[in-house]
Design brief:
single chain; 396 residues; alpha+beta; Four Helix Bundle (Hemerythrin (Met), subunit A); Nonspecific Lipid-transfer Protein, Chain A; two-stranded antiparallel ribbon; 8 strands; 50% helix; elongated; MDMPI N domain containing protein; transcription; Znf_put; metal ion binding; DinB/YfiT-like
């Protein structure tokens, strides 16, 4: 058989010697690139974005079959590109911020340890600030209705999101002045209502602040409120042993440790008011913080019951009601019905069981006694007195 690669050219040499002919060329195709490792690695980003030329793509993909490190990097880059081009919405789960914040508060202690009795205020102000952070101008003017009980009947007051923060700023200012810090009403109210700063209760201070400040309130009030809350926390952290220091609320006084829990409670209640107004989910406090709020309300109930009944508390113990708060933050308390002294278990005439969050909503004036789903047993009048007294703990 004749070798096809040894054909004789038609006009070959006279002596008839065969002249070799080169093999036929394959159809024209892309030229293969021989690139060093460093250059191929630098092309991985462009390859992941499909921005390489055909020759570069072939070179990179051939290299990926030989280099494990570059193959891992290429996989990560392709996954990242996939995230950038997701067809579905990238809107974050609305509960994610609260979950991340609560997890951080559990795992990372502050540099200056906050006293246990101020930890709930620290957590609730941080949660509310996180809620407010992304509000636009329109959301700051969203209507909010404050609710509480006054003289045994529900009361309401219409304001805005910014107005609620101004309210918290004004009442937190009572704790600030007790600690020797600047009163937020000093610059705002100035000399127009000098008696308000020292004597008026929470409602009077708030009304004075609303009258004297720019109306309607704007988002600028958030910075003032958050700065004041930071100052309060720094101060109580460095003077943590002064938890019994008295804080005047105008017509009553609380020790500093209770005042900080009270401020945490109101911060949560009004944060929930704001969240409902802007249709945003908002979770109750962590059980350890909710427990302190419930315990403070339960301790204040005996005097509230006596005030509701309009009688001077006798000096000898008498009947009692067992208040059972269910849930992780719950517990049981014997509430004296006839005396603020230690109640006697044998004189228990009624038993009321409530969910912890529902009890707090009643104490905030956001539920009426008739709206509660309490489990009740025993003296109906005593039960009604205690539930009504719980609602009377609320204020603007």
């Amino acid at each position: 058989m004749t070798d096809p690669h040894r054909l004789t050219a038609p006009d070959g040499p006279a002596d008839g010697a065969a002249e070799p002919v080169p093999p036929p060329r394959s159809p024209a195709g892309p030229e293969r690139l021989d690139l060093p490792h460093e250059v191929l690695r630098s092309l991985l980003g462009a390859w992941a974005l499909a921005a390489c030329s055909t020759a570069e793509t072939d070179a990179v993909e051939e290299h990926l079959g030989e280099c494990g490190a570059c193959a891992d990097e290429a996989r990560r880059l392709r996954e990242a590109v996939g995230l950038l081009h997701r067809p579905e919405s990238l809107e974050v789960d609305p509960t994610l911020r609260n979950r991340v914040l609560e997890n951080c508060l559990r795992r990372r202690p502050p540099r200056v340890p906050v006293p246990d009795w101020a930890a709930s205020y620290d957590a609730e102000t941080a949660r509310l600030d996180a809620l407010l952070r992304d509000f636009g101008d329109a959301e700051w003017h969203t209507p909010v209705r404050l609710r509480w009980f006054e003289s045994g009947v529900p009361a309401t007051r219409r304001t805005t999101v910014a107005g609620v923060i101004a309210h918290l700023l004004s009442v937190d200012g009572m704790v600030a002045t007790a600690l020797g810090l600047e009163d937020p009403l000093t610059d705002t109210v100035a000399k127009a209502e000098p008696d308000v700063r020292g004597a008026a209760g929470p409602a009077g201070r708030t009304e004075a602040f609303w009258r004297a400040s720019h109306f309607p309130q704007t988002r600028a009030v958030r910075a003032r409120w958050r700065d004041q809350s930071h100052q309060l926390l720094r101060t109580v952290s460095f003077t943590g042993g002064a938890g019994g220091f008295p804080v005047s609320y105008g017509d009553f006084t609380l020790p500093l440790r209770d005042a900080m829990v009270d401020r945490a409670f109101e911060c949560w209640v009004h944060a929930d008011d704001i969240a409902k107004a802007v249709d945003y989910p908002y979770e109750p406090p962590a059980p350890r913080h909710l427990s302190r709020m419930i315990e403070l309300a339960a301790r204040m109930l005996p005097l509230a019951v006596a005030a509701h009944r309009g009688t001077s508390p006798p000096t000898t113990p008498g009947r009692s009601l067992r208040l059972e708060i269910e849930g992780a933050a719950g517990g049981q308390w014997l509430i004296p019905l006839d005396s603020p002294a230690d109640p006697i278990p044998e004189h228990e005439v009624a038993h009321v069981a409530l969910d912890g969050v529902e009890f707090c909503r009643l104490a905030a004036g956001h539920l009426t006694p008739e709206e509660t789903t309490a489990g009740q047993r025993g003296d109906r009048e005593a039960i009604r007195d205690v539930l009504t007294a719980t609602a009377s703990l609320s204020r603007m």
